[in-house]
């Protein structure tokens, strides 16, 4: 072929070229799509159509070099490989392995080829067409253009008609790029973005790991969004006079804010950066990523965030062509955004003659941190998470994916419900939606990680240590295969480690089953046989767990299981009572309003952990930022207990009514004194004797006495009454 002229690189290509030079052996810039074609296919015609498209698209045949500046020239046509794998034992598995190996192949920009094209026969009437291309040649929009172009060339010839005009490529992209580079619009765009980012807080990441430019392919997790959820999301958008992509972007921002407790999230948004109609036919790399500043104060809802997204899109749209690489340099080289949100609302519909086809993206190129994509396919809406492989694990992506779907489900039903609790510590309130159990604890952690949370004898845990331990348990459980909805039995004595383990199970998205360490072996085996937990955690298991970096609290659905507690069996065979998160949150909201626990309180953890009274003690104390003081094992007598309460400055006692009867007798008879720190005594489990209530009112009038009642099935407490003291 004749010598090709050397041409410069577009602004977008320059950024990619320099990035590849920093990691020449990395395949991170590979993009790829697989097109599954079902039906009778003229394979020779498909191959001919691919070659025609490659001939038209100079960018896919480019090779690169460098003199004073990087340059590109047109190289030879790549070879289209045709393989018949239909005779293999598992044709699809063989094809998938071949394509995975190809995707992991680094591209030499100075030699090429920039693309690989495979046509694979995997069944009697089933073919896969594979297109892998380096990001320096095409962006995501162009990949879809190329798929449609090949389908159009194939179908037009099969139908005996002229195909649509060819796509444009490198020459057109360079022309568009040069016109913008020398325009007053670029100057105005630069000024806009510098003003936009003035005094902006640093962007945040959902990862705590550092970025390494030399990493390989992005870690991807893709699942279909349930059809009813996708429909609900679109219906909610219509009801709010918004678009569903605006709600999707808002949901990711809201999740990020909720996880990190920040009042602003800066999302990265991929944009076409094609302003003219002719630009929409350029097969090249022009797409850009722009930062969107979104306010996420406590109390913000999906509806409010979507309105902010729409406003930011209106404001920034005229300035989307200013390259993010240039803006990063302009602002001192710092990161411009946290998670990237890519919404692709239109399915790529393809037909090859009479054969129908489904295109699936396999790789979208490099990811510095995290990219959340909502991709409309012919078979429904898909949620794709692409993550930097050294910053996220597959378990973290699974948890993030589940949390995002849950958030979307809740918010689609109630779009004006706060995504973040409207208050800090003590956020459980009856006058606002009940928060999931871990939320207030996480809010306390973000407010003051040095505050003492749990005291057990001489040992103390701060809220920071508590949350790190909770996240460590959750991380370990995910690595052991525990998933949302699983049941984990916990065989630990009362204490701080047990509290951390219970909450860590919830943070993993699972539910816990507290076992009685002192139970007879027969009862224990009966409980385990009936409950069938996915895992049993014992003291050695928990002792081996390490703390983990802080993560946002798990967002359960109302019907997700929280815990299972077995009844005592006094009226028959012990039975497991399953309590869902919605019921637990509702109880905690009511109890917080009734008992008014605050960060100044010290709450005694008296009840055995396999009794649901412990739920009241643990969650109310920690959710309010109070101190939870664990009763010392072996302290049974009233005198010893009151001495321990006095030494610890206990303000809230939660006691079985029978035990309170003994305490009331000793206090009302003048044998013992209630510590002056105590302000509230909660009793329950059986009826309180009227005589001791009357004497209590006379002896300790300034201490509130609240009688509570409720079987385990009603989530700890169903009703309360103030018997004495302040209401």
TrEMBL record:
<dbReference type="InterPro" id="IPR020459">
    <property type="entry name" value="AMP-binding"/>
</dbReference>
<dbReference type="GO" id="GO:0003824">
    <property type="term" value="F:catalytic activity"/>
</dbReference>
<dbReference type="Pfam" id="PF00501">
    <property type="entry name" value="AMP-binding"/>
</dbReference>
<dbReference type="InterPro" id="IPR001242">
    <property type="entry name" value="Condensation_dom"/>
</dbReference>
<feature type="domain" description="AMP-dependent synthetase/ligase">
    <location>
        <begin position="450"/>
        <end position="720"/>
    </location>
</feature>
<dbReference type="GO" id="GO:0008610">
    <property type="term" value="P:lipid biosynthetic process"/>
</dbReference>
<dbReference type="GO" id="GO:0031177">
    <property type="term" value="F:phosphopantetheine binding"/>
</dbReference>
<dbReference type="InterPro" id="IPR020845">
    <property type="entry name" value="AMP-binding_CS"/>
</dbReference>
<dbReference type="GO" id="GO:0044550">
    <property type="term" value="P:secondary metabolite biosynthetic process"/>
</dbReference>
<dbReference type="GO" id="GO:0043041">
    <property type="term" value="P:amino acid activation for nonribosomal peptide biosynthetic process"/>
</dbReference>
<feature type="domain" description="Condensation">
    <location>
        <begin position="8"/>
        <end position="420"/>
    </location>
</feature>
<dbReference type="InterPro" id="IPR000873">
    <property type="entry name" value="AMP-dep_synth/lig_dom"/>
</dbReference>
<dbReference type="GO" id="GO:0005737">
    <property type="term" value="C:cytoplasm"/>
</dbReference>
<dbReference type="Pfam" id="PF00668">
    <property type="entry name" value="Condensation"/>
</dbReference>
<protein>
    <submittedName>
        <fullName>Non-ribosomal peptide synthetase component F</fullName>
    </submittedName>
</protein>
<dbReference type="InterPro" id="IPR023213">
    <property type="entry name" value="CAT-like_dom_sf"/>
</dbReference>
């Amino acid at each position: 072929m004749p010598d090709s002229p050397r041409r410069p690189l577009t602004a977008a290509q320059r950024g990619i070229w320099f990035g590849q030079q920093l990691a020449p052996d990395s395949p991170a810039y590979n993009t790829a799509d697989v097109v599954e074609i079902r039906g009778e296919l003229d394979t020779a015609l498909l191959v001919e159509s691919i070659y025609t498209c490659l001939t038209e698209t100079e960018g896919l045949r480019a090779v690169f070099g460098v003199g004073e500046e990087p340059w590109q020239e047109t190289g030879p046509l790549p070879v289209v490989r045709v393989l018949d794998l239909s005779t293999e034992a598992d044709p699809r598995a063989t094809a998938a392995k071949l394509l995975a190996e190809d995707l992991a192949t680094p591209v030499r920009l100075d030699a090429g080829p920039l693309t690989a094209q495979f046509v694979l026969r995997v069944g009697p009437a089933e073919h896969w067409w594979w297109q892998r291309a380096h990001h320096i040649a095409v962006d995501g929009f162009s990949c879809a253009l190329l798929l449609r172009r090949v389908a159009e060339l194939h179908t037009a010839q099969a139908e005996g008609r002229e195909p649509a005009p060819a796509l444009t490529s490198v020459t057109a992209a360079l022309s568009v790029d040069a016109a913008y580079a020398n325009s007053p619009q670029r100057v105005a765009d630069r000024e806009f973005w510098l003003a936009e980012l003035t005094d902006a807080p640093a962007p945040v990441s959902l990862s705590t790991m550092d970025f390494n430019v030399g990493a390989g392919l992005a870690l991807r997790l893709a699942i279909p969004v349930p059809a009813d959820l996708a429909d609900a999301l679109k219906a909610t958008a219509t009801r709010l006079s918004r678009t569903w992509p605006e709600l999707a972007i808002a949901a990711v921002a809201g999740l990020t804010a909720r996880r990190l407790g920040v009042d602003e999230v800066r999302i990265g948004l991929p944009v076409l950066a094609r302003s003219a109609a002719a630009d929409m036919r350029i097969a090249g790399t022009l797409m850009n990523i722009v930062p969107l500043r979104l306010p996420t104060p406590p109390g913000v809802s999906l509806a409010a965030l979507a309105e902010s997204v729409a406003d930011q899109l209106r404001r920034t749209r005229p300035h989307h062509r200013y390259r993010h690489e240039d803006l990063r340099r302009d602002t001192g080289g710092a990161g411009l955004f946290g998670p990237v949100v890519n919404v692709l609302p239109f399915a790529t519909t393809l037909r090859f003659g009479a054969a129908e086809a489904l295109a699936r993206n396999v790789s979208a190129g490099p990811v510095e941190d995290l990219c959340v994509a909502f991709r409309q396919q012919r078979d429904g809406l898909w949620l794709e998470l692409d993550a930097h492989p050294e910053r996220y694990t597959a378990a973290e992506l699974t948890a993030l994916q589940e949390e995002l779907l849950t958030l979307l489900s809740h918010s689609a039903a109630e779009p004006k419900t706060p995504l973040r609790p409207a208050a800090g510590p003590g956020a459980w309130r009856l006058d606002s939606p009940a928060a999931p159990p871990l939320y207030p604890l996480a809010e306390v952690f973000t407010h003051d990680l040095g505050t003492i949370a749990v005291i057990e004898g001489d040992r103390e845990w701060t809220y920071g240590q508590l949350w790190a331990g909770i996240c460590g348990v959750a991380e370990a459980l995910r690595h052991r295969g525990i998933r949302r909805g699983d049941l984990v039995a916990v065989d630990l004595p009362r204490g701080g480690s047990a509290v951390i383990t219970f909450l860590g199970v919830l943070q993993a998205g699972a539910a816990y089953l507290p076992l009685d360490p002192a139970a007879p072996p027969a009862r224990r085996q009966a409980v385990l046989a009936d409950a069938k937990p996915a895992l049993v955690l014992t003291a050695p298991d928990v002792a081996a767990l390490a703390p983990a970096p802080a993560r946002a609290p798990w967002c359960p659905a109302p019907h997700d299981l929280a815990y299972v507690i077995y009844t005592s069996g006094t009226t028959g065979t012990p039975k497991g009572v399953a309590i869902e998160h919605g019921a637990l949150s509702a109880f905690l909201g009511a109890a917080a309003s009734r008992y008014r626990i605050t960060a100044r309180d010290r709450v005694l953890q008296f009840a055995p952990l396999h009794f649901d009274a412990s739920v009241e003690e643990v969650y109310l104390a920690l959710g309010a930022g109070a101190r939870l003081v664990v009763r010392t094992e072996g302290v049974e007598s009233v005198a010893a207990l009151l001495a321990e309460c006095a030494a610890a400055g206990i303000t809230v006692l939660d006691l079985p009514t029978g035990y309170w009867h003994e305490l009331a007798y000793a206090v009302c008879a003048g044998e013992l004194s209630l510590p002056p720190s105590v302000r509230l005594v909660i009793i329950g489990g059986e009826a309180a004797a009227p005589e001791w209530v009357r004497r209590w009112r006379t002896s300790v009038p300034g201490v509130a006495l609240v009688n509570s009642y409720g079987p385990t099935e009603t989530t700890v407490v169903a009703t309360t009454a103030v018997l004495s003291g302040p209401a």
